[in-house]
Specification:
The chain is α/β, with parallel strands linked by helices. The protein has one domain (4-217): Metallo-beta-lactamase, Chain A (4-Layer Sandwich). It has helices spanning 53-56, 59-66, 74-82, 149-153, 172-182, 202-212, and strands at residues 4-7, 13-17, 20-24, 45-47, 69-73, 88-91, 96-99, 102-108, 125-131, 136-139, 159-163, 186-190, 216-217, 225-227. The radius of gyration is 16 Å and the shape is globular. The termini are close together.
Length: 228
């Protein structure tokens, strides 16, 4: 089965591939732009990039209902176990692990990670995922621009997901610079227009990507699917 991805709004991503269904940062029930309800999704795995409510989102109820294994940093994995999630897999930055759907490596992210109850959520991360069909996806999650994106790009990225909302993450200009460092084949903007504070024009951004880089930008509407 070829890997495919559905953008569910904000930074929530759903991947289907050989080895299972993977849901990332399931901010759904409180997301005004969400394209699905938590109860409609049945992932085998959930990836959580950091502790903020717009990324941790509905992780606990979805994992409790489905039995999905939640992959996150060690601190968030431990917090989830204390909050009723039975199956977790804790990791840390630079480390990778092979799962049924593919290999996940945690990457740096420059952001915060406080959990909803004020607990320490450890360090935020992005994800470099190599699926069973060989497709490589980099989800930067919430981060500012950093030079080591060039090292991530050296691994050969088929699809990059980059925030463009500004204020809390990279804005459009820095996200174009990130594309230049990563050199992905294709790139999708995320983490914008959910709230007025992060309102951006994704098509104007995509045009800058076309003009300044060889990457192919893809602007999705919440709910859209693409083949990876």
């Amino acid at each position: 089965m070829a890997t495919r991805m559905r953008w569910l709004g904000h930074a929530c991503l759903l991947f289907q591939s050989d080895g299972g269904t993977v849901l990332i940062d399931p901010f759904l029930s409180s997301n005004p732009t969400a394209a699905a309800k938590p109860e409609e999704l049945n992932p085998d795995f959930i990836l959580v990039s950091h502790g903020h409510g717009d990324h941790l989102g509905d992780t606990v109820p979805i994992a409790q209902r489905t039995g999905a294994t939640v992959i996150a940093n060690y601190e968030i994995a431990g917090w989830l176990q204390k909050h009723g999630v039975q199956s977790t897999h804790g990791m840390q930055h630079g480390g990778g692990h092979q799962f049924p759907f593919g290999r996940v490596k945690l990457t740096l992210a420059f952001h915060g990670s406080q959990l909803p109850d004020g607990s320490d959520g450890g360090n935020p991360c992005g994800f470099l995922i190599t699926f069973q069909d060989g497709k490589k996806v980099y989800d930067a999650a919430d981060t500012g621009l950093f030079g080591d994106m060039r090292l991530i790009g050296e691994e050969g990225v088929d699809l990059a997901l980059l925030p463009i909302g500004d204020n809390y993450t990279m804005g459009p200009d820095d996200a174009v610079r990130a594309v230049k460092l990563l050199a992905p084949k294709r790139v999708v903007p995320i983490h914008y227009n959910t709230f007025d504070l992060i309102r951006q024009d994704p098509r104007a951004w995509a045009e800058q990507v076309r003009r300044q880089t060889p990457a192919a930008p893809i602007v999705l509407s919440p709910g859209d699917w693409i083949d990876v």
